[in-house]
Design goal:
Number of strands: 15
CATH architecture of the largest domain: 3-Layer(aba) Sandwich
Order of helices and strands: EHEEHEHEHEEEHEHHEHEEHEEE
Shape: elongated
Number of domains: 2
Helix content: 25-40%
Largest sheet: 8 strands, mixed
């Protein structure tokens, strides 16, 4: 692989989830990325090796950071093999490396199966090594040292190196997942979309295994989401600069806050509170999260102004047994959460209408393959009298 100097900018692609593209763009601006271009679930940008490392450590709403190494057009299946074989793979992969190819096919008349694309790319790579060295590096489906990404759209193919390795949503703290966990990247994205005024106490009244409150704590304290991560894909590249990575992490640690802000996580289930506590401990974050077993529907006292974000069950992975669930939830919000901002993510568009409040924002997102919407409700005195349409 060609060594990168700190002043030599190159193209990168940050993969993300639908609906989080604009949030990711703002994050990229903060770390110094250049020439940022929005795509569908992906953002192109330019930067040097420092930006590559920082994008993996710092970005809360990125799933992977790819470094394209070749882009070409193909007219037939043999073209794919030949173009891939032109790449000087010995500069990227050594005989002792293991590698894995992940392919995505979109709108192609030449290929209809991503695994076949991966197979053709693998053949080109190993044939190049056999012809030159008489032997070849091996495939490893579980812990490869080098991960290769292929994206084929129409007749255009882009081959990239995956600098992240494991998906960046795997922060390492969620050792207990609960029944219906929310992806860490999605949780962080929801919080950033919600424009949290950090003077307000943050509350998740149905916190489950604690993902949302942990991400909120890291956002408040300016803790880079993957600063404690020990392995990234780029660490196996032959231009890896360990001193540069350590220096980046050192500087990020200096920028963390030491100001206490209470973040509240409530849930009605002992198991959820226990899971949250375990995950908070694993995350090694500041001990300013208030956890409490509490039944949201038995609220008796007026809540002081809060920024409320939660992921209630919506009948998919976690069943709802009470037909009045959303109606009762709306009544509690109207009665006890006056002057608060409420953000709810759900895929249950029929039952959410029963909440009896008019949303001021509605943002389409995806929780895995499940289409969801993030609703904002501004609760104030007299909300009951307002239009109840979503």
């Amino acid at each position: 692989m060609k060594s990168n100097t700190l002043n030599n900018d190159f193209l990168m692609i940050a993969k993300t989830m639908h609906g989080l593209e604009d949030v990711l763009i703002e994050e990229l601006k903060v770390i110094g990325a250049k020439n940022i271009k929005k795509g569908k679930r992906a953002i192109e940008f330019y930067g040097n090796q420092t930006i590559l490392y920082k994008s993996n450590v710092c970005l809360r709403t990125a799933l992977r950071i790819l470094k394209p190494i070749s882009t070409f057009n193909i007219k037939n299946q043999l073209d794919l093999y030949n173009e891939v074989k032109k790449i000087k793979w010995e500069k990227i992969i050594s005989i002792n490396d293991t590698f894995l190819i992940n392919s995505t096919v979109n709108n192609s008349n030449l290929f209809n199966h991503s695994q076949y694309v991966s197979q053709k790319i693998k053949d080109a790579i190993v044939d190049q090594f056999r012809e030159k060295y008489g032997r070849r590096p091996s495939i490893n489906k579980f812990t490869p040292t080098i991960q290769i990404n292929a994206y084929l759209s129409g007749n255009k193919c882009q081959i990239s190196l995956d600098s992240s390795g494991n998906s960046l949503h795997k922060r390492g703290y969620r050792v207990q997942k609960g029944n219906a966990p929310i992806n860490e990247v999605l949780a962080a994205g929801i919080i950033l979309l919600s424009d949290w005024d950090q003077k307000l106490i943050f509350r998740d009244p149905m916190c489950g295994s604690g993902t949302i409150i942990i991400e909120a704590n890291m956002i408040y304290n300016n803790i880079a989401p993957n600063i404690k991560r020990e392995k990234f894909g780029f660490m196996n590249w032959n231009d890896f600069d360990n001193d540069l990575l350590n220096n980046i992490k050192f500087n990020l640690k200096q920028e963390e806050k030491n100001i206490t802000q209470i973040i509240e996580g409530f849930d009605n289930h002992f198991g959820a509170i226990s899971s949250s506590r375990t995950n908070i401990r694993k995350a090694q974050i500041n001990n300013d999260i208030k956890l409490k077993r509490f039944n949201f529907f038995k609220q008796k006292n007026l809540v002081e102004k809060r920024h409320v974000v939660f992921n209630p069950p919506y009948g998919e992975r976690l069943k709802i047994f009470d037909e009045k669930f959303y109606e009762d939830m709306g009544n509690i919000l109207k009665k006890f959460y006056s002057d608060s901002n409420i953000w709810i993510i759900t895929s249950d568009l029929e039952n959410i209408k029963k909440i009896g409040l008019k949303s001021s924002k509605k943002i389409q997102l995806f929780n895995g393959s499940l289409e969801c919407y993030l609703f904002k409700y501004e609760i104030y005195e007299g909300s009951k009298k307002k239009d109840k349409k979503i």
